[in-house]
Amino acid sequence: MNVAYTFSGFFVGLLVGVTGVGGGSLMTPLLVFLFGFKPSVAVGTDLLFAAITKTSGVWVHHTKHGSVDWKIVAWLASGSIPFALMTLLVLRHFMEVGKETSGAITFTLGVALLLTAASLLVRSVLMRNAAKNKADDTIDDADDDLEVVGRFHHLQIPATIFVGAVLGILVTLSSVGAGALGTVALLFLYPKMKTVKIVGTDLAHAIPLTAVAGLGHLSLGNVDLVLLGSLLIGSLPGIWIGSHLSARIPERFLRPVLASLLLIIGLKFVLQ
Fold it and tell me: What DSSP state is assigned to residue 61?
C-alpha cells in the first residue's frame, strides 16, 4: 500500500465529486506523469478503478431517482461492448507478435483528453439548448418516448449504437471518455431528456464498458492491483467530500480551468 497513491486517489475523487468529470481524464495522466507508470498499466488500472467507483452512483440514480433509461443503456452497450472486445483482441494480437502498443495508447489518450477538454466547454451550451427545448421540467413518462427526445427520429437507434461503438474503442484504449464524452454525446442525441436522466444513463452505461475493458486489460497484464487498492482507499471518501462541496464552488470558473489543464496534458500526450 502506497500513501502517495492513496492521496492521489483522494485528490482525483475530490475533483470528480466537485466537477463531475470522469476520473480517467484526471487519474490516467497523473499515474503516467507523476508516478511514471506505463500508459497501458495506467489505463488498465484506471478502467477497473472507474468500474468500481461508479457502481454506487448508479445504484443511487436507479433506486432513488429512477433516472436511468435502461433501453438507451442497452443500445449504447450493444455498440460499445463488442467494439471494446475487438479492441482488446487487437491489443492482444500486437502483444503476441511483439509489436509495441504504448505509442497507440499514448496517442489515443491524448486525443481523448483533447475531446474531453472540448466537451467541458460545449456541455454547458448543450445543456442550455436542451433547457430551451423543454416545455418544462415535469415531462411525464409518456413524453419520454424516443419520438419526442431523439434528435434523429427513425435513425435514433443506429446513431446511439454508433456512439456506443466509438466510446467502446476510445475508452478501451485510453480509459477516458465514458463520463464526460458520454454525457455530451447523450445531450446531443437526446436534447429533450432531463439532465439527471442523462447523467444516470451515462453512468449506467459506463460500468459494463469500463468493467469489460478493465478485465480485458487485467488479462493482458495491464493492471496493478496494489495500485488499484491504494487508489480506491483514497478516492471513495474524496468523491463523497467533493460531492458535498460541489454546490459551493462556481462551476463557470472551475470547468474552464479544468478544460485548459486537460488541453495542455492532451497536447503533451499527442505530441510526445
Answer: I
Q: For the chain, which residues score pLDDT lower than 50?
A: 136-142, 146-148
Give the H or E element holding residue 87.
helix 70-96
Specify the pLDDT at position 169: 95
Cα 12 to Cα 17: distance, rounded to the nearest angstrom: 9
**Run of H or E including 95:** helix 70-96
> With the CA atoms of 26, 162, 66 and 204 taken in that order, what torsion angle do they form, in degrees rounded to the nearest 10?
-40
**Integer Cα distance of 25 and 38 in angstroms:** 16
Q: Which residues contact 228 (CB under 8 A, 6 or more apart)?
A: 45, 48, 49
Structure-block grid coordinates of residue 127: 445543456
d(CA 137, CA 113): 32
Grid cell for residue 61: 440514480
Q: What pLDDT does 58 receive?
A: 65
Asked whether the beta carbons of 119 and 176 are under 8 A apart, the reply is: no
* Domain, as residue range, for 239: 3-271
Distance CA 99, CA 202 (A): 34
Are 250 and 83 a contacting pair, CB within 8 Å?
no
**Nearest CA to 199 among 24, 20, 14, 59?**
20
Total domain count, the chain: 1
Residue 120 has a pLDDT of 80
12 DSSP 8-state letter: H
Least Cα distance to 50 among 247, 212, 222, 260 occurs for: 212
CB 169 within 8 A of CB 83: yes
Amino acid at the residue 41: V
Please spell the DSSP secondary structure of 139-197, one letter per residue: --GGGGSHHHH-SSGGGHHHHHHHHHHHHHHHHHHHS-STTHHHHHHHHHH-TTS-HHH
Place of cell 479544468: 258
